[in-house]
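SEVERITY: medium
COMPONENT: batch folding queue
REPORTER: lab tech (J.R.)

DESCRIPTION
The queue accepted two submissions in a row. Attaching both inputs and their returned structure tokens so the on-call engineer can compare them side by side.

ATTACHMENT 1
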Amino acid sequence: MMTTAATQQPPVDSAPAEPLLTVDHLVLRYPVRGGHLEAVSDVSFQVARGETLGLVGESGCGKSSTGRAVMHLPPPTSGTVTLGGQNLTSLPPGELRAARRRMQLIFQDPVSALNPRRRVKDIVAEGLTIAGVSHAEAQRKVAEILELVGMNIDIAGERRPHQLSGGQCQRVAIARALILRPELLVCDEPVASLDVSIQGQVLNLLEDMRSELGLSMLFISHDLSVVHNISDRIAVMYLGKLVELAASDTVTRSPAHPYTRALLDAVPSHRDTTEGNVTALRGEIPSPMNPPSGCRFRTRCPLVREKCARVVPELREIAPGQRVACHFPLHGEQDAA
């Protein structure tokens, strides 16, 4: 993306309950030949305790980079990440390592995320071992967490990842993430590599774990229908920026941003539930090395006007609980031209 610093805006999101995670003005740049690529550009949001926030967008929009920056893998270039009142971006390495126990990451490909040489019970116990928990206590906790995710330690615990199905590997990955009893799960496309028949099982498992353990989740996916099924609120991302943020049903029934509407139009089950009529997207997503001026979506937007090229739209509230970064949203108050 552009080499200039991100335009600073006021914090844009207030979750409906006490926030566990607060992300303010998050920027993440990757060094590339001839400059840098800004994958995440001035993103702010909150996740309440016990809430699931879905983060959705096309491949390459920066949603996975956002999740990794929250985890400090790698640390953000600028901005702050606060977990339960603790500012992670200001912690020295040793304290950050300890703080990471409070949040865990579930990867997209469960098979490649697991060490093929180790037994399941050893993979799940690794976090406890690093934390200095005794072998006997670790094995007891491993048995409990494997049972919680629907696996038997006497059978699955002795196996290695290649002896399990994709769904079983993802259950192991979830167990490994939960073994330290984190407060926040960052789920990066956790069902994208699974068969449709298995996706529902894993989503139900995550929902059960959230209810039983009081977890908060940042659920990242390119599939809006999957995100809608599991999320309390949805944040829509395009080319490194948030373009809409609202309750899950609001986003799917009454989207305010043309990009959100286009994502819904690509899901057959939602085509008859949203209001209005917007032309399908045109063109290709711009290069993140050189994003468009003004609104980054303007080169593909069916509602584009002259102002869209001049002024960067702020993520602003157009209805209670609904924020959109668009000068001319599909409904609600419009900016003056």
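ATTACHMENT 2
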Amino acid sequence: MQRLEGKTAVVTGGGTQGIGRATAARLASEGAHVFITGRRKTELDEAVEYIGPAAVTAVPGDITDPADLDRLYDVVRERGQGLDVLFANAGVGSFATLEDSTMEHFDRIFAVNVKGTLATVQKALPLLNGGASVVLNGSNAAEQGTPAFGAYAASKAAIRSFARTWANELIGRGIRVNSISPGPVDTSGLTELFGENKASIVDALPMARLGRPEEVAAAVAFLASADSSYINGTDLYLDGGQSRA
């Protein structure tokens, strides 16, 4: 019996070749029908082909646009089975030191990572079934103090705070809320951020390698399933021990 047989899931940022797509594929392999959303239709189409159209539905949209989120959840609602798993994964990051930071830089990161996540979960509330699982994608950057990564780190600290609060607010409905804090994971996003310096990150990692998107996906699938039924309000580090070394 697949752990998510007959369940309905939503993965934001599900088209990118990284954590989103890997998690959508894993949830589908566990038996869920997965709705994915993202800003780039080409990537969404590629994800549908990769996962299989019988198991996934793509709805293009931007989580910073309330109308796009409404359209996503309207499609989920039409399926008529509510929502059992929500992985609020979509996010952005870029570097700027305190001296070089601009309000535009700050606003962009917080609009997606904080306001977008809040709207994603808030608008899902009417659809969430009893026993549903919500997983928020944070980052171990929230406590690393990486130079020039302050706005991103602060946005991910907010994600961790959301998970704690929402876990308490939604427990009466039997809905669990947890967050994950990945470290450096080998994704296209990491390549965009670090370019040729990506390989140097490995030197600072206790396991001497980058994480794989599939490893993060496995953790999300666990938190989405009944196997984690007594886990609520926690934050799961997926960084090979970087934050605890």
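NOTES FROM REPORTER
Strands lie at 8-12, 33-38, 56-60, 83-88, 128-137, 176-182, 235-238.
No errors were logged for either attachment.
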